[in-house]
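Moderator note: this is an archived Q&A kept for reference. The question asked for a predicted structure of one protein chain; the sequence and the answer are reproduced below.
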Amino acid sequence: MKKIKISPSILSADFSQLGNEIKRLEDGGADLIHVDVMDGHFVPNLTIGPPVIKRLRKFTKIPFDVHLMISPVHKYLEDYAEAGADIITIHPEATENLKESINLIKKLNKKVGVSLNPDTKIEIIKEYISDVELILVMSVYPGFGGQKFISEVISKIKILKQIKESNKFTFDIEVDGGINFSNSKEVIKAGANILVSGTTIFKENNGDIKKNIEILKAV
């Protein structure tokens, strides 16, 4: 089984201390830094853009796992690549031509991720699965942190695992939304190898990030 990785979401960090928060995540053993980008259009919330990501990049060498919840996404891919994203994850609904957007991310020498909302069928990305490095399964509806985990997505994770194993694909299966100590094991068992968590990592055990990451990784 692949090593379990944790990608803490800075959406739950103290935005007035983001540089320090990233250092805390690094010291706590984070494998990736999950950066949620929202435009107030594709999802009903606004977060950070390329200038902030570029400033944060200098605080750590940990890969930036950038989840773009923006539409139309294609014309902004280069901006996020230049800002310091290492993985760029997009929603198929946010681009007019998914293949073209995947190819552009590859051309920018970044890892490609595609994201599936809770009600998005795997079929929409099936012909592109061999082209991506990561599939992000949303276990909440994107837009806000702190939502409750939607357990129905477990079946989707299991199907992706079957597709991955039967075709000997190497893409990561990442899950984001409501991940906590009680459901993390179920998600890992279903086939996920990257867990995104915000509230649990920053708030549980009096904010002991290292301890919280270790608990989430435990199988």
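Archived answer notes: The longest strand covers residues 33-38.
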